[in-house]
Write a structure and sequence with these properties.
Chain lengths: 215, 667
């Protein structure tokens, strides 16, 4: 699987290139800012791009801007954004503006090589990946609030994973439950929360995130 | 005015000097010889009028040869002098030679003398009649007086009243018809009096500036003369005090004409009113107690006198104050007294800066009767208008240098503190009205006070600006540290974590499970450390605030809040960095406190920018009882807000929820 990596911190970028290579990714390019990344992708689109969210020149959300540009001319490229912080508004923007094949993780996640490799591959195949910390914060706040209180523990577990971008298949694997049972839980969650069931995974994530954020 | 000034500067010619001396000599002789001939109470006033009007008139004419009023004075004086002499001569017993004709001269000019005196008063202070109507009135008056004089000259219509020693020199027929005519005609005297009174009062009402002050001198003298006449008649049963007061009128009028710029009569009138009122009150009190109480209660007169003295002593000061207030009202009208002006100014000292300057403008305007007052703030090179009285109708004036402020009848008073210009007060008076000496002194006092205010405001502004700079610098420092952490320590720790991850994988691959587990533990600890550092860095200064503004930044606070938050943000534009940061920290601190202490189920955050200010309010439904300054971090917020000219309000009744709010000015 071909990857391009973008980060202005050289040590981190090179460390990442090394581990990606170890877990059988082919790193075909490295950039130190958004413009450089866009240029590399334009020349030779990879399967997935792993980019820092905050880069020169403004140290703002250059990573998302670059991702949006890449999505406009190379929609097949998966986009994985890494950041020191995960923010809900960034996650929502990624869900709203990108039609799947997008990920948003804390940089810390990279140190768990296996899990990170799985997440990158999921993004490359069109799935959505949201950092669990972001979701757990939102869910924790809702714990004492209706209508989340009506959910069973299992349903709440399903909801949290769903918000991270897990598909029904992934849920079934994660929770060691049959796809039929998972489907039942998911339907129940949507009914109890008054959300509309969506065919597309990223739409589902967006709906759940928005629900969790809404007061 | 310019003609008079010009005339004033001309040296009197020898001929005019000689003429004046001749007239003076003539009148002095007539009056001196008249006195020598005897004392006749009913003729005293003519002598006094003749002497005083001639003397004052000649003096005015000598100082200002072209001043018409001077000539009118001389005419009035000479005529009265002639009449005085004629009557003195005619009244002498036994009859002197040619007493019939000389006495006759003392009688018939009377209508002319009265009319001339009226004209003189009507033409005061410049000798000109203000309008065509008044000129017609004066001509008519003089014509009527001429007719009366002719009748009086031909028939002895006035002789009964005056009682000369010798009869009328002409024995013409028709004396009875003349008497009948005179029965009606003598009411003209009354008409003349009414006419000039109306004229003076009317002129007084219309007059502006210096003329008002001149007329006040005249009116004061006339009223004093009348008061003395009435008082003399009532108290002593004699017209002598009134007659003796007559010269007051020309003297006061002369002062008004020649010296009006030096002396303001207002304080004199003021004091006269107070003294008069107090005399009246004391007399009345004495009479009431001694006579009234004495009649009701049989008591020793000495006791009553003592009681009266005590009552007067006790009541004197309060009554005097009342009388003074009343006199101030009457004399100064709407204009405030210096004391009132200064106390008005002190009352404004508590106001906000802008209101304070407005207050200074209004106080100055009231104190000196200005039509326009502008308060300027700044240095000598660049003064900016800051307050106006009244509010500017058309476009406001731009900045100007001190030198450029004057012109177009504007009085300029620079405000100087320790040798450097801090501002200025400029004012305009009604057309042709100048600043009197007392107004000038009061203005100087007010300017000195305003100077202190301006200096104090300047210092307050400097301190505010310094505090704001400190806040801005602190924000910049926080941002820099956050960035350093993000790009430095955090980045390195994350890279370390990555390396440890690689090590763990390698240990696992090589079958060293103990090593793999230990590396895995180390990695977990490292991740905890980075998580802590992450929270610390994020609390310092969120990147999203600088990047995307207040609403997304507050959104991140809400997203991480442990309590549900209802956030409402209505901020249309980006605000100054320190204002946004302050609002962010306020909400952040309030949310943290709510989550930690309040037990609230929901927090409502409202952030709205309206009319150049940002209103921030965080309210929870918790148990309340929060106290700023108890290590809650609210004190730091309060200081930060104060630096931005805002105030932190904490409303946290026990059991009634906590409401933290601030209104931050943001231009």
């Amino acid at each position: 699987m071909r990857v391009i990596v973008a980060d202005d911190a050289v040590l981190f970028r090179e460390g990442m290139v090394r581990i990606l290579t170890e877990v059988a990714f082919e790193v075909v390019g490295q950039a130190r800012d958004g413009a450089g990344l866009v240029e590399l992708v334009r020349r030779d689109p990879p399967d997935v791009v792993i980019t820092d969210l905050r880069m020169p020149p403004g140290f703002g959300d250059e990573g998302i801007e670059a991702a949006a540009e890449i999505r406009s001319f190379a929609p097949q490229v998966g986009l994985m954004l890494l950041s020191q912080y995960v923010e809900v508004h960034h996650a929502l923007r990624l869900m709203e503006e990108f039609d799947g094949a997008v990920g948003y993780l804390l940089k810390d996640r990279v140190s768990d090589l296996g899990a990170f490799a799985v997440d990158v591959r999921r993004v490359a195949t069109g799935e959505v990946v949201i950092d669990p910390e972001l979701v757990s914060g939102l869910v924790a706040r809702h714990r004492r609030r209706d209508p989340l209180a009506e959910l069973t523990d299992r349903e709440r577990e399903v909801l949290a994973l769903m918000a991270q971008g897990l598909t029904n298949a992934a849920l079934s694997q994660e929770l060691v439950l049959s796809p039929k049972t998972i489907e039942g839980h998911v339907r129940s969650v949507f009914t109890k929360l008054g959300l509309e069931q969506s065919e597309r995974d990223h739409r589902r994530v967006l709906a759940v995130l928005q629900f969790l954020r809404r007061q | 005015m310019s003609a008079a000034t010009e005339a004033y500067q001309q040296a009197p010619s020898a001929a005019r000097e000689a003429g004046g001396a001749l007239v003076a000599l003539l009148v002095a002789t007539l009056i001196g010889y008249g006195w020598y001939l005897g004392f006749h109470l009913e003729n005293v006033h003519n002598g006094l009028i003749g002497g005083s009007f001639t003397a004052v008139g000649l003096y005015i004419v000598r100082m200002r040869p072209r001043h018409r009023e001077g000539w009118l004075f001389v005419a009035t004086g000479v005529l009265h002098g002639v009449m005085f002499f004629g009557r003195q001569y005619g009244l002498h017993e036994p009859a002197l030679p040619a007493a019939a004709w000389l006495g006759w001269v003392g009688v018939w000019p009377l209508p002319l003398a009265i009319a001339l005196a009226g004209w003189t008063l009507m033409a005061f202070p410049d000798g000109r009649l203000p309008s065509l109507r008044w000129r017609v009135a004066v001509v008519a008056m003089m014509a009527v007086a001429a007719v009366l004089a002719v009748v009086s000259a031909l028939w002895p219509v006035e002789y009964d009243r005056i009682g000369l020693a010798t009869p009328h020199p002409l024995q013409l027929p028709g004396a009875e018809a003349a008497e009948r005519f005179w029965g009606f005609a003598r009411f003209s005297y009354l008409l003349f009096q009414v006419l000039w009174t109306v004229a003076v009062v009317g002129r007084m009402r219309r007059a502006r500036g210096d003329e008002v002050r001149q007329l006040r001198w005249l009116v004061y003298a006339v009223v004093m003369a009348i008061v003395l006449l009435v008082a003399g008649l009532l108290v002593f049963g004699s017209p002598v005090p009134g007659a003796l007061a007559v010269p007051l009128i020309p003297v006061a009028a002369g002062i008004a004409i020649l010296k009006f710029r030096l002396y303001d009569i207002d304080p004199v009138i003021n004091k006269t009113l107070v003294v008069g009122a107090m005399l009246l009150l004391i007399t009345t009190g004495y009479v009431v107690i001694v006579v009234g109480v004495g009649a009701l209660v049989p008591a020793d007169e000495r006791v009553l006198t003592l009681v009266t003295t005590a009552v007067v002593a006790v009541a004197f000061e309060p009554l005097r104050r009342r009388a003074q207030l009343l006199a101030d009202r009457l004399v100064y009208g709407r204009r405030t007294t210096p004391y009132e002006a200064l106390s008005q100014l002190s009352a404004h000292l508590e106001d906000a800066p802008q209101e304070l300057l407005d207050g200074i403008a209004a106080t100055v305007a009231n104190a000196v009767g200005a039509t326009e007052v502008v308060v300027w703030v700044g240095g000598a090179e660049r003064l900016v208008p800051q307050a106006w009285w009244p509010a500017p109708v058309d476009e406001e004036e731009g900045p100007a240098s001190l030198a450029g402020l004057g012109g177009s009848r504007r009085h300029v008073r620079p405000v100087v503190h320790r040798g450097s210009v801090r501002g200025a007060i400029t004012l305009r008076k009604p057309a042709d009205e100048s600043l009197t000496a007392s107004e000038d002194r009061l203005l100087a006092d007010l300017v000195a006070q305003a100077g202190l205010v301006m200096v104090q405001q300047h210092q307050a502004r400097e301190m505010q600006a310094a505090a704001r700079r400190i806040v801005t610098a602190e924000d910049a420092a926080r941002r820099r540290i956050e960035r350093d952490l993000h790009d430095g320590a955090q980045q390195r720790l994350v890279t370390l974590g990555l390396e440890l991850g690689v090590l763990a994988e390698q240990a696992k691959a090589s079958g060293d499970m103990v090593m793999a587990a230990r590396v895995g533990q180390t990695r977990s600890q490292l991740l905890e450390a980075t998580a802590e550092l992450r929270e610390l860095a994020r609390g310092l200064h969120p990147m999203v605030l600088a990047q995307s503004g207040l609403e997304p930044a507050l959104g991140t606070l809400v997203d991480r809040s442990a309590i549900p938050v209802r956030l409402h943000v209505a901020v249309a534009r980006r605000l100054p960095g320190e204002v946004e940061a302050t609002a962010y920290y306020l909400v952040s601190e309030a949310l943290t406190n709510s989550a930690r202490h309040s037990g609230a189920s929901v927090v409502v955050v409202n952030v709205v920018s309206v009319d150049g200010e940002l209103r921030v309010e965080v309210a929870d439904d918790g148990r309340g009882g929060a106290r700023p300054g108890e290590g809650s971090g609210l004190q730091g917020l309060a200081d930060r807000l104060a630096a931005l000219g805002a105030e932190l309000r904490v409303d946290s009744p026990s059991g009634g929820g906590t409401r933290i709010s601030a209104v931050v000015p943001c231009g």
